Amino acid sequence: MPGAKDLFDESSMSFGSHLESLRTHLIRAILGLFVGVAISLIYGDTIIKEISAPILEALEKNSAKKASNPEKTDFWKSRWDTFQQYISGKEKPNQPKEKEDIKKLNSNTIRIKVSPRMIAQTLHEAYPEIYNAPPKKKDAEEDEYIYWTVSSDDIQRWNQAVKENYKPKTFNVQEAFLTYLKVALVSGFILASPWIFYQLWLFVAAGLYPHERKYVYLYMPVSIGLFLLGAFFCFKWVLPLVLVFLLEFNNFLNTQATIRLSEYISFAIMLPVMFGLSFQLPLVMLLLERLHIMNVKTYREKRRMAILIISIASMLMTPSDPMSMMMMMIPLCILYELGIWMCKMAGPQTNPFDEIAAT
């Protein structure tokens, strides 16, 4: 038709122009990444402290629980108590009161009157394979006592020694340095990601039609928001609960957990990323509906099958514990209903090329 508009008039570029544009935007993106990594290297220790905070808190709670109740408790009852504690925000029953312990140690020094026999018996009960039991006390024999003076400095040193056990460990000389670099690279990419994606978008947008750009402008903020929501939900609520759950298995098996720094950092980064990606479910559903692969009626009829697929995906995207699987599965079921609503609100799809050609 002589009067029809050529839809490719404003979107044609030579191959050389494409390569030049790609080179320019890649260089800008890489420079932005360097700036982000440089900033992260300066504040890397603060970032590692924030990432390590959940495991330190979980180890401290686990140690306090073992100290207050050394006998083996019912495992699944303990899990239910832990779940109720996170839901209600209340302390566990029989949890030691730290404030009461601090009040007893307010003075600068204290004197402890103790029997050597009592010390020997305590050491034997704690380490029977190392310390022998003290000889039995005779009827007419009276215990001798010794006085032990303890200062606040001594207590602080003991407290510091106990806290050292809570810290993640490194198992070779270079592990701490390599972990620092890894955290700096990941956090630097996150910091520079708006600039990096903006440069990639400038390259891709040159080959898109106006209506295609409109979809990106509309749904890209939604995608970023869902990803950040999933990552925040995981780091704030899921990760602490999962760590407590996993550490309880060490108590259940009567073993001591030794946390490796590099492995924990990888775990603490991977889990929020998996949650952020899984929270893209509504947009994936909308995309399939726009491509006429699925529709709202099919989504509703296949809801049971979708829940099964969600449960399998949650199992594959999280660690092997059931707690993290359930914490991912429940929000995804809610997001599935949100996806149905988004498909319904999007309305019927029209051909945008008809509108462009008519203008």
UniProtKB/TrEMBL annotation:
The listed locations are:
Membrane
Which Pfam families does the UniProt record give? Answer: TatC
> How the protein sits in the membrane?
Multi-pass membrane protein
Cellular component terms per the entry's GO annotation: TAT protein transport complex
A single GO molecular function term of this UniProt record: proton motive force dependent protein transmembrane transporter activity
Where does the protein principally reside? membrane
- Kindly list the residue ranges recorded as spanning the membrane: 26-44, 177-204, 216-247, 267-291, 325-343
Keywords, in A-Z order: Membrane, Transmembrane, Transmembrane helix
Gene Ontology biological process terms in this record: intracellular protein transmembrane transport; protein transport by the Tat complex
Question: Has the keyword Transmembrane helix been applied to this entry?
Answer: yes
Which protein is depicted?
Twin-arginine translocation protein TatC
Q: Which organism is it from?
A: hydrothermal vent metagenome
